[in-house]
TrEMBL record:
Keywords: Flavoprotein, FMN, Heme, Iron, Metal-binding, Mitochondrion, Oxidoreductase, Transit peptide, Transport
Natural source organism: Ambispora gerdemannii
Name the record gives this protein: L-lactate dehydrogenase (cytochrome)
Family: In the C-terminal section; belongs to the FMN-dependent alpha-hydroxy acid dehydrogenase family. In the N-terminal section; belongs to the cytochrome b5 family.
Cofactor(s) listed in the protein's UniProt record: FMN
Catalyzed reactions: (S)-lactate + 2 Fe(III)-[cytochrome c] = 2 Fe(II)-[cytochrome c] + pyruvate + 2 H(+)
Length: 364
């Protein structure tokens, strides 16, 4: 189908499932274990209803915002996803270019197919990039990576904290077994054949803990945010340790299965931070399962500054390259604008908690 026939985020997923190699589709689409959390990420949004207000002049709807002080055309950013070249020969720079024309922030992954320099060189004038860090147990390597990200102009450090070990993504593992039968005698080759996720993750530091944050602050002046917070308790700890923000996220359902969806966790996190005296002090982002403008609206209503998207941008890139990602972002923007107009919100500040009905959200 032609690009113009793509009417929503799901359409790109359907095309990507056809055009990607079996290996790439398995790596991109998989969740961990029974994929309960993966499915829940979208289901949870479907348990939130809207309470629109009427008789408001919605001729002009302003979706613009600031993430950590940097302009964004609407409250969406491209989250870090590894191995972009599985989906497109040019890899992550395709996302960079699309983020630039759509004036949104891109979060660069540690495990990108492109080098950090390639991604930062592809940056447009005034374009903002954040950096996602997987902490290497060799802290000299970690320090080099962080300093390099800052030198190359990244504006924030998002430390991924939900992945001391990568989740068991069985789709991904099975494809590798078919493609390349393992030699069970050889432990190393078995690991190699456990799929893309296992192959790239062996360096991650399982000992990472709260005491390490002081060290991170000593090696960078970028604001530090934690990606993968799933409880009120940890949100408050992140605040106490001086983080500039958090991403409420379960890593797209790829890590701990039976983790709750980000959108479900968001109210408890917002409430706890407020009670602990941190209201407005941290930026709260959420990701996982965002596929519609109404999903973005719901996240904003419940206190998120912006939402991250992972798979939708990978699928759009894989299916149609840069124009695909641009169209995906434009569709999400158009959907958000329509939701705001129909709900009586002229700006993001008008999207109030009372515009969503979450009675069914926690009760299912
Ligand atoms: C991810 N995600 C991720 N997160 C991270 O911190 N470092 C990484 O390297 C990756 N890699 C990665 C690869 C792929 C293929 C996917 C799908 C996801 C998680 C990502 O940043 C984000 O949290 C989720 O993708 C959001 O959920 P949706 O939008 O995919 O539903």
């Amino acid at each position: 189908p032609s690009l113009i026939e793509m009417l929503n985020a799901y359409d790109f997923e359907a095309v990507a499932s056809q055009v990607l190699t079996a290996e790439a589709w398995a790596y991109y689409s998989s969740g961990s274990d029974d994929e309960i959390t993966l499915r829940e990420n979208q289901n949870a949004f479907h348990r939130i209803w809207l309470r629109p207000r009427v008789m408001i002049d919605v001729t002009n709807v302003d979706m613009s915002t600031k993430l950590l002080g940097y302009d964004s055309s609407f409250p969406v950013y491209i989250s870090a996803t590894a191995l972009g070249k599985l989906g497109h020969p040019e890899g992550e720079v395709v996302l960079t270019r699309a983020a630039n024309t759509q004036k949104i922030v891109q979060m660069l992954p540690t495990l990108a197919s492109c080098s950090l320099g390639e991604m930062t060189n592809a940056r447009g004038k005034d374009q903002i990039q954040f950096f996602q860090l997987y902490v290497n147990r060799d802290r000299a390597v970690t320090e080099r990576v962080v300093r390099s990200a800052e030198e190359k102009g990244c504006k924030a450090l998002f430390i991924t904290v939900d992945a001391p070990q990568l989740g068991k993504r069985e789709k991904d593992m099975r494809v590798k077994f078919i493609a390349d039968p393992p030699d069970i005698q050889d432990e190393k080759s078995v690991r190699r054949n456990l799929g893309a996720a296992y192959a790239i993750s062996a360096f991650i530091d399982t000992a990472l803990n709260w005491n390490d944050l002081e060290w991170f602050k000593s090696i960078t002046s970028m604001p530090i945010l934690l990606k993968g917070i799933q409880t009120a308790e940890d949100a408050v700890l992140a605040a106490r340790h001086g983080c500039a923000g958090i991403v409420v996220s379960n890593h797209g359902g790829r890590q701990l299965d039976f983790g709750r969806s980000g959108i479900e966790i968001l109210p408890e996190v917002v409430h706890a931070l407020k009670n602990a005296g941190y209201e407005g002090k941290l930026e709260i982002y959420v990701d996982g399962g965002v596929r519609r403008g109404s999903d973005i609206f719901k996240a904003i209503a419940l206190g998120a500054k912006a939402v991250g998207i992972g798979r939708p941008s990978l699928y759009a890139m894989s299916a149609y390259g840069q124009p695909g990602v641009e169209r995906l972002l434009q569709l999400l923007k158009d959907e958000l604008e329509m939701t705001m107009r129909l709900a009586g919100a002229k700006s993001l500040a008008d999207i109030r908690p009372e515009m969503v009905d979450i009675r069914n959200l926690h009760d299912h």
